[in-house]
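Quiz preparation item.
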């Protein structure tokens, strides 16, 4: 079972350094229905960021109980909005996002520092833009626990020691910065047998550019 949500990257890292017991199993919370998928808004990083993260992925892939993400799965999550929506519901979700983000501008994301949450190894994605987009979609969202990140591996209850050694080698690394121009509504497979397969992009919304 996932513990309390972290309120800072530093809190997450400190808890990870102090942990003795195996980490959580991400797969235990996935659906058993092969057809299940989640509609969610996400940001796709550019090739340069993926290339910079590649050595970390290679290192993580060597560890027991650690599933490094494939290149096509790299993303920064904004908000999950519906499970198994039909086409009509997808249209509604896109319309709601267009309204909520009508005045939203693009923003920068700085990827730096490997870290670990309860059931995933991540690279921190430093930006205020993700929280602003989330709040526009869900005003009740608790922004105290919004820690934007790019997941680099999902965990299957690994021992913390080997994972800690791997992430510490990338703890102070800068993986690059890029400007977000658009966001994507993706239909992400969330069954245990289908997770990490390529998702379907259902819609793309371009963020307005600041004038001047």
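Solution:
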């Amino acid at each position: 079972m996932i513990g309390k949500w972290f309120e800072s990257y530093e809190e997450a890292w400190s808890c990870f350094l102090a942990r003795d017991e195996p980490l959580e199993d991400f797969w235990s919370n996935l659906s058993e229905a092969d057809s299940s998928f989640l509609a969610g808004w996400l940001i796709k990083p550019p090739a340069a960021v993926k290339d910079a993260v590649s050595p970390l992925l290679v290192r993580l892939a060597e560890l027991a109980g650690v599933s490094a993400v494939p290149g096509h799965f790299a993303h920064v999550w904004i908000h999950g909005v519906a499970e198994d929506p039909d086409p009509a519901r997808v249209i509604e979700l896109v319309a709601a996002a267009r309204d909520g983000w009508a005045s939203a501008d693009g923003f920068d994301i700085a990827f730096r520092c490997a870290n670990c949450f309860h059931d995933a190894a991540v690279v921190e994605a430093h930006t205020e833009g993700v929280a602003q987009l989330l709040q526009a979609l869900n005003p009740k969202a608790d922004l105290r626990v919004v820690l934007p990140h790019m997941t680099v591996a999902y965990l299957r209850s690994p021992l913390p020691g080997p994972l800690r050694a791997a992430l510490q080698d990338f703890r102070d690394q800068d993986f690059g910065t890029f400007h977000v121009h658009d966001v994507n509504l993706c239909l992400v497979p969330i069954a245990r047998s289908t997770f990490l397969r390529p998702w379907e992009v259902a819609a793309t919304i371009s963020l307005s550019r600041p004038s001047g």
